[in-house]
Amino acid sequence: MPQEALKNLFVAGLSNAHAMESQAEQLLKRQIERLDEFPDLKARLQTHLDETYRQQQRIDAILESLGESASTLKDTAMSLFGNLAAAAHIPADDEVLKNSFASFAFENYETAAYKSLIAIAESAGVPSAIGPLRQSCEEEEAMASWLSSQLDSVTRRFIQKAA
Ligand SMILES: [Fe+2]
Asked: Going from the N-terminus, what domains does the chain have, and what CATH number goes with each?
């Protein structure tokens, strides 16, 4: 692929990641509002919300280094996750479970997106982007792994509370 096309692919990928992180922000905020009964989950999501803001800033900085303005990007809702984000709005008895599944799926999606972006950055010859993208990728992986480790105990606590 010619260098110009690689750069375009990278910018398109960064724009998608920008939209993805906007969705992440919404998904996290909606859950944090409603997680008073699961304070440890709430605290970890709050920490990840702070990480998400920094991830957004990293994407903006890379876009700006490429001469693209992040502020003009339209964050079109990703259809894959539109329903998940909407579901986080609906009060349901088992919302903590559904949201845990959705968050786990979302964090894995984000990890995949960053892994791909790192490969594109290498191919497109933008080495300065690799460190920040790797940092975000590691944060997503850590979040996915933590959520996975909590599914058992969150489910058991949900059962106890429902009893
Ligand atoms: Fe994330």
From this structure: 3-162 (1.20.1260.10)
